[in-house]
Amino acid sequence: MKLLGTAGLLLVLAAAASTTTGCASSCSATPEKLASLKRGMSYDAATGVMGCPGTQVGTQVTHDDISTVEWDGPDRGMVSRTQLDFRDGRLLSFTTGNRGGW
Fold first, then answer.
1. Which site from 2, 30, 60, 79 is most exposed, i.e. has the minimal number of CB atoms within 10 Å?
2. Helix extents (H) in the chain
3. Which CATH architecture has domain 6-101?
4. pLDDT classification of 11: cutoffs 50, 70, 90
């Protein structure tokens, strides 16, 4: 196995950082994205609108499969959050608010 030199390692790290930064900015909730969400749309369609899968924050297994997925935004970056609620893989509702009661 060939080890990367310092320059090669730096190039790989820079590429990873730019990919992460790009995903984070395209993945945040915006007013335009929220306006495009429609009740009943599939999970795949909703995450397509949002730009990435988000972070699952809750699943309640009852007679219906209910789950909540979260994204940063739309305002103040990581201080605010948007949660989409899905029932049986279909968008039920979404809410936005501040994290931690700020």
1. 2
2. 6-27, 31-36, 43-50
3. 2-Layer Sandwich (3.30)
4. very low
